[in-house]
Specification:
- The chain is an alpha+beta fold.
- Helices cover 69% and strands 10% of the residues.
- It is built from eleven helices and eight strands.
- The strands form three sheets. The chain has a four-stranded antiparallel beta sheet with strand order 2-5-7-8, with no helix packed on it. Strands 1-6 form a two-stranded parallel ribbon. Strands 3-4 form a two-stranded antiparallel sheet.
- Helix 1 runs antiparallel to helix 4, helix 3 runs antiparallel to helix 4 and helix 4 runs antiparallel to helix 11.
Length: 430
Amino acid sequence: MSFRLVAINIIFLVTFASGFSIAQQPASSKSDTLRLTVDTAEKLFLKNNLALIGQKFQIEADRAQIIQAKLFQNPNFYFESSVPTSLNGNFYDPTMHSENSVQVQQLFYLAGKRKKRAEVEKINTNISEYEYYNILRQLRNELYVSFYQLNYQIQSLKIYNRQLVSAKQIADAMDEQYKKGNISLKEVTRIKALVFSLESAKLDVLSDVYDKENSLRILTRTPAQSFVLPVADENKIESFSTNNFSLQQLLVTSDTARYDLKESEFAVKREEAKLSLEKANAVPDVSVGGVYDRAGSFVQNYTGAGVSVPLPVWNRNQGNIKTEKNLVELRKTELEEKKNEVHNEVTSAFAKANEADKLYKSFDKSFASDYDKLITGITMEYQKRNISLLEFLDHYETYTESMSQITHLRNLRIEALEGINLTTGTIVIK
């Protein structure tokens, strides 16, 4: 029995010393580890993100359509010459006797059509710009959430690594003692079950780490082989709070800062501009031109001018005008629906952030360090055989679960606070 006690004491001294040492090591020892603060990550994101770059090209393409809409119609040039034919066995000299006719026509848009087309394209460009900022809003939220989630998942991974080192070494030592008949199979099995549980939980966390790594690399366009290690400012995170603003302030902010809402507003303006254009299209355009004809009129050299106007007898663009009137009303309905959707999103995000922040602020910050001391004390009690192995393992599992829950709470809080930034369309929580 004394041999067993000495063996276990040695095991615990080694395992807990090595476990706490490993916990302080970074999650990755790769030489290509990229250490990023949240500000640096955002700079890389704004500079390199392909979705944002692609949307900028769309904006420029829409701006080019404004130029196109302002251009005048090209003049129409027409030339006609008679084919030389024989008469009484002779050919006419084409330079002296054949007919040659030249016509030039220019189309002029009336009722301000050119200006109205340009106005529609300007609004299209505005909508493309708002789409860019809306994409930016969503991707920035994904960037921040992924950054902080990865930070906390790596912290969780350290906890599991520390616990696994200790648990595996204890399991190996217990297995040796079982083979020698010093301990029961029940104790060995209990330790191995703990190891399996820790390994399974660690695998889940590791899978999340890989997912967030992948997300950050795509968002910042960093090399696929690099390991992004977030460097979070814990003091800054602690200072985040929902007490600095009210729900009404957030609702007012969202009305002016949510670019998808502005996109809906300009969708109404676009249909109104298109309606104005369709009404203008009901007005006929005028073609003005001149003609020169040699040897084809009552005089040798004929010069004339003409005007061409289609008569709006049957087609006065009635169908297109009616379509646009209905589309205007449709877009207004969609705008009201979007406003209601945005306000509900802000209200929900504010409630979630309030609850998460309140729970976190009520949490004793010394709990983690106190629990570390408690586990050390529990270990010493077990070394002295004052508590059973099962009792020790219960404390061990509770410790691991509690530390993971602390990390999870921090993660939920920062995600809820970032939800306010996402739903208001601006960085309220800085």
